[in-house]
Amino acid sequence: MMKFSTLALAFACAGLLASLSPPAAAQGLRPSTQLGPNLTPGPSGPRAADFIVAVVNSEPITNNEVRVRMLRYEQQLAQQGSPLPPRPQLAREVLERLVTEKAQLQLARENGVRADDSMVDLAEQNVARSNSVEVAELRRRLVADGLNVAQFRADLRNQILLQRLRERELAPMAKVTEFDVDNFLREQEQSLAAGGNTEINLAHILVGVPENAPAGQVAQLQAKAHQLLARARAGEDFGKLARENSDAAGAAANGGQVGLRPADRLPPLFVDVTRDLKEGEVSDVVRSGAGFHIVKVLEKRQSSPAGISVTQSHARHILLRATPQMSETQALQRLADFKRRMLAGQGDFAQLARENSQDASAKNGGDLGWASPGMFVPEFEEVLNALAPGQISDPVVSRFGIHLIQLLERRQSTLGQKEQREVARNMLRERKLDEAYVSWSQEVRGRAYVEYREPPQ
Asked: End-to-end alpha-carbon separation of the chain, Å?
């Protein structure tokens, strides 16, 4: 049915929408080096004087769009306790992200990807619920923060479009074969025999190299990377160097930190270059398709074998798909009505699933059986993980349709060989999606005609 990992739609807390962040391996997506002094990152807010700062194909990006997005990022970083990067640097990063998003949104529209008002309503409800407020209170807070509700909903719609486009474009690139799974499990066994799985917390600096850059420019950028390496090894604060110099989108604002994660969830280049390094040591300059990297080991530790004992969930669902006879809006309303009936004691979940669910689980009353982490798509699993046993979710939208989910029970379980292979398959698929996102995003961005504008005098 839906046991397929994919990129998730992510919304920020505190009533703010965050862009879909690129996966860990996608942090090589660099901001353009062509940016001129066309941004005025002064006080953020929609009331500032507006002008066009860039044109993507024939579609403009305004200075206020950059300001509003910067405000959101700054609030997110403040809530996380993360240091703020210099505002000119943040402005450049935000503009480049907007350029990339604009190119992808144009591609979505060209390919007929749509998100109707009911999907936006549901996304807005999800943001409100994640902040434990009603939609009306969410909107009040947005206005109090100087944000426009209509623009907020437009951003939600755009994020839904981006997710749907990325799912469609990237899913075919994430095929995992039995040979891939065999190799992965063999590597895991070798790792365990060597003393367990290694978890690593890295920080890195990327000096981006534009595609098809001439040799002279590449040499200049390589020299810059070596200068940064010398400063890092001389004792300068690595996080500060990353915030001020790294072209890695997202990671630069966090001092270049990638975060503690198993080695097999890091880009292989980073693992290889830090294999023999101790905590606190910095790698040599290494080259990837994105540019020149400097990697610092912040922490290394051995973890217990992954995938042996996990928390499993036993759930059931009702799945409705949009058809010419039933729109997404009608499907949402129908599932919401099912929930109201069940909560009022006027309907039975299993019976409603058998009569209405549009997948193979219908004959079993919607029962999905026991599932390990990573078995469902992230947007489904995120909601499932937040449920208490017996609780029924609100309608949930995934790439498969609209779901009503009920968690039946949870348990700790030791995985058998078949289950371990399924976990390995999902991990490999996520890794391939990470890798595919980098090249796909760069390809879409590279096909776009981008003109940067100088501010009015």
From this structure: 58
CA distances (Å), origin 420, targets 4, 181, 368, 416: 15, 10, 18, 6
Query: Are the beta carbons of 427 and 264 closer than 8 angstroms?
Result: yes
What is the DSSP-derived secondary structure letter of residue 257?
B
Query: Do 446 and 401 have their domain in common?
Result: no
In angstroms, the Cα distances linking 170 to 49, 250, 445 are: 39, 21, 15
Could you tell me the two tokens for 190?
Answer: 């070798």
Q: How far apart (Å, rounded) are the C-alpha atoms in residues 10 and 8?
A: 6
The domain that contains 140 carries what CATH number? 1.10.4030.10
Q: How confident is the model at residue 148 (pLDDT cuts 50, 70, 90)?
A: confident
> What are 293's strand-pairing partners?
206, 286
Provide the residue range defining the domain that includes 276.
Answer: 197-303
Q: CA-CA distance, 233 to 367, in Å (whole number)?
A: 57
Cα 243 from Cα 384, distance rounded (Å): 36
Residues 6+ apart with CB under 8 A from 223: none
Average pLDDT of 4-28? 30
Residues 5 and 97 in one domain: yes
8-state DSSP, 285? P
Tokens representing 298 are: 């912040």
Among 148, 46, 85, 48, which Cα is nearest to 455's?
Answer: 48
**380 neighbors 386 (Cβ within 8 angstroms):** no
Task: Tell how strand 261-262 and strand 197-208 pair up.
Answer: antiparallel
d(CA 9, CA 401): 14
At 79, give phi and psi (nearest 5°): -65, -35
At 34 the pLDDT is 36
In this structure, are 235 and 188 located in the same domain?
no
Burial class from Cβ neighbours inside 10 Å (0-12, 13-18, 19+) for residue 407 reads buried
Cβ(106)–Cβ(98) below 8 Å:
no
| Full-model pTM | 0.54
- Three-class secondary structure of residue 193 per DSSP: helix
Q: Give dist(CA 267, CA 435) in Å, integer.
A: 9
* Three-class SS of 164-178: HHHHHHHHHHCCCCH
